[in-house]
Write a structure and sequence with these properties.
This protein is α/β, with parallel strands linked by helices. It is built from 9 helices and 10 strands. Helix 2 links the parallel strand 4 and strand 5.
């Protein structure tokens, strides 16, 4: 009955979780509000706040799980990809904890962990399945044959879907983080009020840089004619932008499902918390007879529970690393 302590610090959330024999006992996430004043994550500030949050987060995770540190059998940590300074805090803590306790270390790929978040709770997808992983830095379609047999079959050639949402929020003058605010406004607007282009990218890959530019020019041109355009149409603008991003994602996912003849379809990553995307996937799945899987909200954004569950399966495989391990800002999938 292995007890796994999971550590996540790839960006601006400091998170710790405890997994006991595959059951998640706790998942603590400490957010950083300091970045709101800058309209985005400042890497140096993020790493400093991680240093302040890491010990309290771990202590709280152990307490909630009713687990003493002496009972922990292994420490799983995010090695990458992510902000190097942020990763360094989590990796250093994990190495120190494991060294002091003389227990194994388990490295975890952050993007693989997002996929494995589907194995925290029931229902769980059956192998093979497709996972659309969407975040601020990544947009991928992953063919998952086993817990650690994953193949990226489609990915963005430039910007991620989350970046398109973040850029739109800045253009509209929304405070950081803007993604949830766009989602909130979109629920009140008409998704077909304004038309934005769908990039014609061959195969299963994505591109969002052109869409970002189209949105920028659209707002600029309309504001030139009517300075109050954004304020008077904020709900419809957000709904229309979100609708286009969701249709781009789901059209590619539909193509992938047909290409690989797979009916189990999963959603993961921070943008999977978007209600428009969740609803869109659910409706498309009902139309096409898919079995769709969407994690709970707390497992969509960066969290240590997904690191702990990945660590659990690696522990069963005896897949450990040594104290010489170092974080990687860019880590191969």
């Amino acid at each position: 009955m292995p007890v796994i302590l999971g550590i996540e610090s790839s960006c601006d959330e400091t998170s710790a979780a405890v997994c006991v024999d595959g059951e998640m006992r706790s998942n603590v996430i400490a957010n950083q509000t300091i970045h709101e004043a800058y309209g985005g994550v400042v890497p140096e500030l993020a790493s400093r706040v991680h240093q302040q949050n890491i010990v309290p987060a771990v202590q709280q995770a152990l307490t909630r799980a009713n687990i003493r540190k002496e009972q922990v059998d292994a420490v799983a940590f995010t090695r990458g990809p992510g902000l190097l300074g942020s990763l360094l805090v989590g990796v250093s803590f994990a190495k120190a904890f494991a060294l002091a306790r003389q227990i194994p270390l388990i490295e975890v790929n952050h993007m693989q962990a997002h996929v494995l978040a589907h194995f925290i709770d029931e229902p769980k997808p059956a192998f093979p399945f497709l996972c659309l992983t969407v975040s601020g830095g990544h947009t991928q379609i992953v063919l998952v044959r086993d817990h650690f047999d994953m193949q990226v079959v489609g990915q963005t050639t430039d910007d991620a879907a989350g970046e398109a949402l973040d850029k739109t929020s800045k253009i509209l003058g929304l405070p950081y983080p803007g993604g949830p605010l766009i989602d909130k406004h979109a629920r009140l607007g008409d998704p077909k009020a304004f038309q934005f282009p769908e990039p014609q990218i061959p195969g299963l890959d994505f591109s969002f840089s052109g869409l970002k530019t189209a949105i920028l020019y659209f707002i600029r041109d309309h504001v030139a004619l009517d300075p109050d355009f954004v304020g008077n149409n904020i709900d419809d603008i957000c709904a229309s932008v979100e609708h286009r991003i969701v249709t781009i994602l789901l059209n590619k996912l539909k193509r992938a499902a047909l290409q690989f003849n797979i009916k189990d379809i999963a959603l993961a990553g921070g943008v999977s918390a978007n209600s428009g995307l969740r609803q869109g996937l659910t409706e498309l799945g009902q139309q096409l007879g898919w079995n769709t899987f969407i994690p709970k909200f707390q497992y969509c954004t960066d969290n240590a529970a997904m690191i702990a569950i990945a660590g659990y399966y690696k522990y069963l495989n005896g897949d450990f690393v040594g104290q010489e391990i170092a974080p990687l800002a860019r880590m191969p999938f």
